[in-house]
Specification:
Helix 5 packs across helix 7 and helix 10 packs parallel to helix 11. The chain has 4 domains: 99 residues, Serine Threonine Protein Phosphatase 5, Tetratricopeptide repeat; 201 residues, Rossmann fold, CATH 3.40.50.1110; 151 residues, 3-Layer(aba) Sandwich (Rossmann fold), CATH 3.40.50; 199 residues, Gcn5-related N-acetyltransferase (GNAT) (Aminopeptidase, 3-Layer(aba) Sandwich). The protein is an alpha/beta fold. Strands 11, 12, 13, 14, 15, 16, 17, 18 and 19 form a 9-stranded mixed beta sheet that branches.
């Protein structure tokens, strides 16, 4: 929203006359006065309208507070799909706050956007929405209606830009389906294969992740309601193409479901024929912010920024009423309109848990009384084993959220907090700003929409580790601490009866490996965020040594928890990636992996290993890892890291003393198959 326009959503507590006064101050250059008026108008408002957030951003920028200006500019995304305000915020960041963008973003992506329609007005919205998710997009928009030519021509701008991600922003008019078909399955499969071939070409030539907009079915269909029972109709074939693309999408392709989004907002809001004929844009200005948010969420998921844990309050959040006042018999869940709404919300949280989201409780309550509800109330959909942490006491919730993060060994920026009380939400925002806070509406029937619309749990892939994540965390938390027991630490490790399956990178494991590479921060020596296509390239490189580690102990099967990649250059084995899940830190998996690295180097005829520690805000845990295992430092400490060398001819052996390396019949006797043989095996398959 421009500062010269008096437009305000009065439902958010910012009356029109106040915003008009703000605009008068801003036009006169009285930005301090405008800021005071704006702040007073939104006092007590959790999520100001996008136009108000833009005004605040402009005021702070003119007053020299670039940090606050950037925060409010990005906050326009939360204030509703206001096309004009979003453009204003995107322009402000690009022209006046670009210095903040690099420091605030957690990831950077070089992305080429390919499409057959006008993308210049939508791309700034995508960049803004991505910044809200912590991703800075360095965008290249390929020429209008040159999508296929750009993909096929190796001298095109696409290949000169060398992106690490490609977005296919397409629409139903890009398909070559007939108006009616006598063989709809054949024509649908032919059309789907055309797009799959484009994916393959991009992946083979650029080693990129690909995001694809599927096809929103047009409205109205010529056959009307008869279309749904006529397979040869164009709308039925479009639906079939969408289904085939979903079925055939490889792990390095993510799909934004535009057909679902167009249904959410309404077909006639999604597509504006006037905009199409005037500007060749198939998505209306009302729907473009929505498409930008969802596309940014999928990009953030590929970048490893999906949140890990949803922390919930109890009273009036999971059930109606206050357990301490109403007693177990007085709370409302499962029966009546309100109770059914809370029951449906619990079922939704259970579905999130089953897809890999950790659930935790943070409540001001008596712990035992609260737990009794989960044990005894037959209408509760959630039970105590569904949670990885249960913190109920009378301490401030920001302190308890820190406790939960410490317990799970994750950062605060992995948590999302849900609470029905605005004051509690505001306390968390102020004292633990890393935690995402979802405002809940007054009506519990709308809780599911509030959590779903946050897009904080969007996934790029779904793996076996995701399905069993809660059970794995609970098993680890129930295990005795590392200093437990009456004997020495070695005896404790032996008591865990740990076994590891060490094997080369396999195609079937690539989605899980990409997850770890994208999101692992603490035990990650280089923090290189390779995408799935790049990881696949390593797996077929004969000069690359690579393996994964799966760990099991007497308490749990932890799944795939470690990845190591090293490349031979000038007869030196250079460590490219070494990371490990926080779930198994302190279990001597590091010694196992370095032992396997050294053994693999000897098999490849290499006697020198070079490693780099690249410091980040979160990986101080591994600052001294190479020194502890006998590497020699080659460079002094610096912001860009330290370099280490291990001469296998002189160094003491690195031994794995506590973990049994096992085989399940697919590994060779040396635990890591020869790299050239692995590459040949992938080629044959």
């Amino acid at each position: 929203m421009s500062a010269t326009t008096c437009e305000v959503d009065t439902t958010h507590g910012a009356p029109n006359e106040v915003m008009c006064a703000v605009d008068v101050h801003m036009r006169a250059g009285r930005f301090a006065a405008a800021l005071r008026e704006c702040q007073a108008a939104i006092a007590g408002v959790e999520t100001p309208p996008a136009s108000v957030s833009l005004r605040l951003a402009k005021c702070y920028e003119r007053l020299g507070d670039h940090s606050a200006a950037y925060r409010w500019a990005v906050a326009t995304v939360d204030g509703g799909p206001d096309y004009i305000a979003w453009h204003g915020a995107a322009s402000l960041i690009e022209n006046r706050l670009s210095m903040m963008r690099e420091s605030a973003a957690r990831r950077m992506k070089r992305i080429s956007i390919l499409g057959s329609y006008t993308l210049s007005t939508w791309t700034p919205l995508l960049r803004l929405a991505a910044l809200r998710r912590g991703v800075w997009l360095d965008c290249q928009v390929c020429p209008y209606s040159q999508m296929e030519q750009s993909i096929l021509d190796l001298s095109s701008d696409l290949y000169r830009f060398a992106p690490d991600m490609v977005l296919l922003s397409v629409h139903e008019k890009d398909t070559r389906l007939p108006a009616f078909s006598d063989d709809p399955e054949r024509d649908s499969r032919t059309e789907a294969l055309r797009w799959v071939d484009m994916w393959r070409t991009l992946a083979d030539r650029l080693k990129v992740a690909i995001v694809h907009h599927n096809f929103a079915l047009p409205e109205p269909p010529p056959l009307g309601h008869c279309s749904v029972k006529t397979p040869g109709s164009r709308s039925s074939m479009l639906a079939r193409v969408n289904a085939l693309l979903g079925e055939q999408a490889p792990p390095d392709v993510g799909i934004v479901d535009c057909e679902r989004l167009s249904g959410v907002v309404g077909k006639r809001i999604w597509y504006d024929p006037r905009l199409w004929h005037a500007a060749k844009c198939p998505v209306s200005v009302k729907a473009q912010p929505l498409l930008a948010r969802h596309t940014a969420a999928v990009i953030a998921a590929e970048a490893g920024l999906t949140r890990k844990c949803l922390v919930v309050d109890l009273d009036n959040t999971l059930w109606g009423g206050i357990i301490g006042e109403d007693g177990p018999a007085g709370i409302r869940v499962g029966n009546g309109p309100e109770g059914e709404a809370f029951g449906s919300f619990q079922e939704y949280l259970l579905a999130l848990k089953n897809q890999g989201v950790l659930l935790a409780v943070c409540s001001k309550n008596d712990e035992e009384q609260a737990m009794q509800v989960f044990r005894n109330d037959p209408d509760m959909k959630l039970r105590l084993p569904d949670f990885v942490a249960f913190v109920a006491n009378w301490e401030p919730k920001p302190s308890n959220l820190r406790r939960i993060a410490d317990l799970l060994n994750v950062g605060l920026d992995s948590l999302v907090f849900v609470d029905d009380t605005p004051a509690e939400r505001e306390a968390v925002r102020r004292l633990t700003p890393e935690v995402e806070v979802i405002p809940l509406p007054p009506n519990p029937a709308l809780y599911i929409d509030a959590v779903a619309d946050s897009l904080l749990f969007e996934r790029w892939s779904y793996t076996d580790e995701d399905r069993g994540r809660t059970e794995t965390y609970r098993a680890r938390l129930n295990a005795p601490p590392l200093n437990a027991g009456s004997g020495e630490l070695g005896a404790f490790y032996e008591g865990l009866r740990m076994s590891a399956d060490v094997r080369p990178i396999r195609e079937v494991d690539l989605p899980r490996i990409a997850q770890l590479v994208g999101k692992t921060n603490q035990f990650n020596v280089t923090t290189r965020r390779h995408n799935l296509a790049q990881l696949r390239s390593f797996s077929t490189d004969p000069n690359c040594l690579h393996f994964t580690v799966r760990l099991r102990d007497c308490y749990a099967d932890h799944g795939l928890v470690g990845v190591l990649i090293a490349v031979v250059k000038d007869n030196v084995l250079e460590l490219d990636t070494w990371l490990m899940s926080c779930r198994v830190i302190g279990r001597t998996v590091d010694a196992l992996m370095l032992s396997e690295l050294c053994a693999g180097a000897r098999r490849m005829g290499v006697s020198t290993i070079r490693a780099i520690y690249a410091p980040t805000a979160k990986n101080g845990l591994v600052r001294d890892i190479f020194e502890r295992f006998g590497f020699s430092k080659l460079s002094v400490d610096a912001d860009d890291g330290t370099e280490w060398l291990l001469d296998l001819r002189e160094a003491r052996p690195i031994r794995n003393e506590h973990i049994e390396v096992v085989s399940d019949g697919e590994r060779d006797d040396d635990h890591i198959s020869e790299t050239r043989g692995h590459a040949a095996g992938l080629a044959q398959s």
